[in-house]
Write a sequence for this structure.
């Protein structure tokens, strides 16, 4: 039903550790899955020309520069990188050649390019990066995941307002429950920054329910958890790092006690299904606050994740989110 | 060898969710395990008298007040709680009736009482709370775990110096590798507070190796990871919460695919041994910065954890730690 609307996503062919091969594979998966999805692919001629010739839903846009993951993200907005795939893909969104931008490249570079080229909403002071973490009850949005290491209470209020519009328009959650990441659930807990923020959110943020502790990011108590980008990043990496380490410890621990081949196979399948359940299916993180859809995949994305990210971009482009944000935060 | 030195630990009978029964059981385990360990037990007469009569290594000290976990921790230093078990046990350390204080009660209350009664070292601005998190290579000390939500860079320098003395004198690590919790390992990463702290630690902290990310708290890259109490608490709870949720998800996921009773038993044993491996064996957290040994158990401690905490207190009291800290930070 939703997929009936034609949508064009601008994709950076050079984003991620496994680019461009993996990106091309992901693009193919995505356009095959969604009949009304088209891709404007941005990348080096040698890397993308023959792929685009073979796929009539993918249009080639040749660029001459590549910003590597190891490059300083801020370089992306310098003149020497004007013809790189990230910049040109953002320009395609700005010029309405595409309705969304997807890259699995450097988060910092994508956010910087999008902020400069697609531009912030008039009343948004800082864009933020959100992601949905799986919980037993569905998923919880964490905002900000790392775009803004230093924040004001007002920044967090805006992150909450934007994440709330995302939850309503993309996740179908009408009255999202919003928490503030702190070191205790009681109102009196926090550092001086979160105490000041808590007071502002109580006064001004619809759906604000008070402090959240780290485990609440994954236990389904809240639809949205707010944090400055420094603490959000610390919590996110702690959750991801612990999951990864535990899965590997459990696998080796179980393998050594269950020696039979059937047992090993059952465990493998069981852990695999759990891993699927625990990983997000939006294929990356979302930049909120710029006047267009921007989705940024993990650097280690596989073809399936790239495809998920492009399909998420298309879903967002077909939604009313950017219009609603325009109404709320003003066109520039 | 180490255990040959007689040591007395002051124990709060009313600390923790399962007090006093669980504390008494833990005390019994500890004194049975360590022939030269004696306990001064502080608590309500009805709760501890008969237990102490039956255990000749445990001396009863009757108190009339109990600070509940739900009480404001700051109440502990008010006159109305002067005769509570936490305060009286701290006084026993101050008066040399005991060489260490153990409680599984409110962390905030224990830290407040110890700071006021046992008192800080002359040159320590703020005590901190540390704990050791298990890693595949041993364990990593996290400081501060939550005592100080707002910190100065100088506070973190002192936490690093104190944790380093702990690692050397208690864990036998001669040159501990110290990291600063941040949102990226590169020197340039961080918020304004951690950037300023990073510069100070580079200049003044022996063994400082730069920024650490959350997963480094559990992967063995560092012996000590420093954070303000707010971020340290967020990282700690994210790690603990994720472990807990994953263990329970894995258990149910495996149980449903492996229906046979033998399979279920093997899984149970395997997860149990993993859980043991993943949990600390110091029985709680340690308050560093006051002129005496203070160990604070988890609120949900079982008898085994209480016993571990008391044995850790004894180990610390027998070590040279407090003398070394006196030399470094000055008696008051």
């Amino acid at each position: 039903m939703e997929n009936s609307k034609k949508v064009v996503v601008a994709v950076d062919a050079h984003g991620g550790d496994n680019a461009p091969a993996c990106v091309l594979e992901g693009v193919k998966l995505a356009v095959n899955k969604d009949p009304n999805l088209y891709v404007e692919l941005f990348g080096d001629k040698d890397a993308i020309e023959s792929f685009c010739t073979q796929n009539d839903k993918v249009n080639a846009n040749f660029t001459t520069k590549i910003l590597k993951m190891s490059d300083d993200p801020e370089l992306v907005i310098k003149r020497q990188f004007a013809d790189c795939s990230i910049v040109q893909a953002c320009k395609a969104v700005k010029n309405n050649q595409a309705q969304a931008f997807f890259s699995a490249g450097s988060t910092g570079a994508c956010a910087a390019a999008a902020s400069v080229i697609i531009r912030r909403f008039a009343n948004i002071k800082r864009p933020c990066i959100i992601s949905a973490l799986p919980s037993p009850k569905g998923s919880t949005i964490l905002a900000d995941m790392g775009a803004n290491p230093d924040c004001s209470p007002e920044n967090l209020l805006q992150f909450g307002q934007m994440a709330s519009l995302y939850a309503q328009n993309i996740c179908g959650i009408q009255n999202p429950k919003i928490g503030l990441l702190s070191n205790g659930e009681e109102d009196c807990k926090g550092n001086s920054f979160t105490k000041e923020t808590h007071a502002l959110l109580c006064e001004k943020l619809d759906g604000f329910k008070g402090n959240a502790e780290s485990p609440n990011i994954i236990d389904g108590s809240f639809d949205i958890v707010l944090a400055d980008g420094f603490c959000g990043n610390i919590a996110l990496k702690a959750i991801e790092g612990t999951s990864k380490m535990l899965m590997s410890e459990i696998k080796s621990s179980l393998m050594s006690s269950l020696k039979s081949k059937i047992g090993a196979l059952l465990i493998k399948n069981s852990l695999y299904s759990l891993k699927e359940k625990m990983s997000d299916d939006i294929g990356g993180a979302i930049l909120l606050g710029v006047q267009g859809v921007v989705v940024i995949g993990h650097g280690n994305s596989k073809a399936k994740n790239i495809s998920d990210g492009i399909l998420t971009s298309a879903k967002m482009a077909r939604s009313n989110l950017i219009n609603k944000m325009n109404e709320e935060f003003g066109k520039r």
About this structure: The radius of gyration of chain B is 20 Å.
